[in-house]
Design brief:
two-stranded parallel ribbon, 154 residues, alpha+beta, four-stranded antiparallel beta sheet, globular, 5 helices
């Protein structure tokens, strides 16, 4: 969970709901989401379970474990144009944009340094990242929103 750079089609307009809020969407097409869900279902039906599946969950139906089949509204469309542009998304949900899309990484970095992301812009005391921080983020492609460190006392 955090922020990630997604490649989007040129001039991509992320869909909004009736209240003009961005609709959270996974970074894959509905077709890809269905293929993944079906592959998981087939594995489950063969008796294959993830290592972290508890003993009590072993007898569940796949959709009780994984959730229902994909919802078309939660996935981006199949691109008709090659996804060559860059856009920052938050990934606390399935993903909503926090910057406009840009044709180059340099333009995205310049935007972040000048304006920050939408979250930063909505908070008057929040400063945009430095050029070094924005460049590191764009180069890395993602950043966590929070890190938890647990210290076990002897």
């Amino acid at each position: 969970m955090g922020r990630e750079i997604r490649r989007v089609a040129p001039n991509w307009k992320h869909p909004k709901d009736a209240a003009r809020n961005f609709i959270p969407m996974y970074d894959k097409s509905f077709r890809e989401g269905v293929e993944d869900w079906k592959a998981g279902y087939a594995s489950w039906e063969r008796g294959e379970r993830p290592d972290y599946c508890s003993e009590g969950s072993q007898s569940l139906e796949f959709w009780e474990w994984e959730g229902p089949p994909p919802d078309r509204e939660m996935y981006r469309p199949d691109w008709t144009d090659e996804p060559t542009w860059f856009q920052v998304y938050e990934t606390v949900s399935e993903g909503t944009p926090v910057t406009p899309p840009f044709p180059t990484e340099k333009e995205l970095i310049d935007y972040l340094v000048t304006h920050g992301d939408f979250w930063c812009q909505s908070r008057p005391n929040e400063n945009p990242p430095s050029h070094e921080a924005a460049t590191a983020f764009v180069t890395q492609g993602w950043a966590p929103s929070m890190v938890i460190v647990s210290r076990i006392q002897p």
